[in-house]
Structure to design on (329 residues):
């Protein structure tokens, strides 16, 4: 069956292509009798306007660009699902873009996305630091950040206060007399690690102590496990905090290699909860982050920005839930 085109509609209605385009895009500069003739032709032929062509005429594409890091699909899957479900309700298309590494690349990607005339951009990328976020504000397109806390006229965010979560966890351990607390470096997520350090530091400062147990992994080590196996030969802590499940598991396995029992001799907490945390043994204590809601709320925020709807706060904080399991006492 031959696909009906805008040319067929123009021929049927005996008008120009430009006139058909004006009717499709709801422009008011077409005479009423001409508009009716074009609409009748569209209905008779069963023509469905191409969304991209329609968007070009309006300088809008009804498309939202979603930018996520390639390495985090295990965690971002639910974020994407939440965003897609809300996008369907408001009839927006989602263009997925992935980043490998490097802040320069992220800025180049965003610039190219803006040039493609999407309506808005949603970004989830823990590599973005404050300076890079400031750079994004130059674009006159609505942008919503997931995870990073920052806002201005064209920039909003939805986030979970990881700093607060780690502060509360650390405070609880300090109150139990356990101050030997360490954070494992995560080179892939510097923004998140910065939040962890701030949370632990605040808890220590409140009792007149200093936090100095940030475990940096030298660049010549190929993996966290390789480094930690050597690290635990002469050292252990009351509590190890890791951002990702892979690093928490590396800490547990490296501890076992050195006859350090988890949780009896050392406790381990993984910040980001994934489906694997409950599958491994010992099961990992972690924070349940509402990842689906992060995506859904981000998409709803950007629709409000695009439709210039009023909303009270451009920095939306979602709650978390600490789930203690077998890796802690």
């Amino acid at each position: 069956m031959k696909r009906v085109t805008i040319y067929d509609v123009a021929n049927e209605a005996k008008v120009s292509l430009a006139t058909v385009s004006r009717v499709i895009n709801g422009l008011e500069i077409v005479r009423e009798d001409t508009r009716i003739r074009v609409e009748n032709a569209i209905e008779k032929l069963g023509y469905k306007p191409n969304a991209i062509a329609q968007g070009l005429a309006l300088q809008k594409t009804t498309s939202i660009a979603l930018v996520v890091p390639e390495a985090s699909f295990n965690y971002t899957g639910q974020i994407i699902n939440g965003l897609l479900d809300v996008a369907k309700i408001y009839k927006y298309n989602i263009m997925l873009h992935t980043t490998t590494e490097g802040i320069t690349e992220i800025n180049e990607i965003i610039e190219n996305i803006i040039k493609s005339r999407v309506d808005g951009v949603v970004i989830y990328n823990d590599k973005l630091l404050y300076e890079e976020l400031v750079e994004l504000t130059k674009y006159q397109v609505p942008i919503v950040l997931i995870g990073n806390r920052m806002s201005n006229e064209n920039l909003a965010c939805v986030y979970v206060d990881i700093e607060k979560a780690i502060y509360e966890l650390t405070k609880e351990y300090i109150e139990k007399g356990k101050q030997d607390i360490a954070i494992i470096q995560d080179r892939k997520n510097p923004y998140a690690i910065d939040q962890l350090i701030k949370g632990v530091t605040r808890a220590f400062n409140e009792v007149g102590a200093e936090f100095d147990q940030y475990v940096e992994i030298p660049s010549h080590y190929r993996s966290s496990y390789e480094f930690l196996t050597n690290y635990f030969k002469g050292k252990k802590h009351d509590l190890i905090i890791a951002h990702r499940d892979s690093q928490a598991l590396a800490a547990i396995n490296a501890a076992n290699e050195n006859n350090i029992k988890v949780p009896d001799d050392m406790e381990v907490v993984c910040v980001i909860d994934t489906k694997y945390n409950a599958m491994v043994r010992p099961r990992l204590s972690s924070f349940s982050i509402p990842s689906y809601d992060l995506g859904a709320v981000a998409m709803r925020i950007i629709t409000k920005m695009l439709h210039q709807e009023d909303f009270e706060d451009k920095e939306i904080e979602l709650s978390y839930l600490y789930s203690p399991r077998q890796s802690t006492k």
About this structure: The first strand starts at residue 63 and ends at 69.
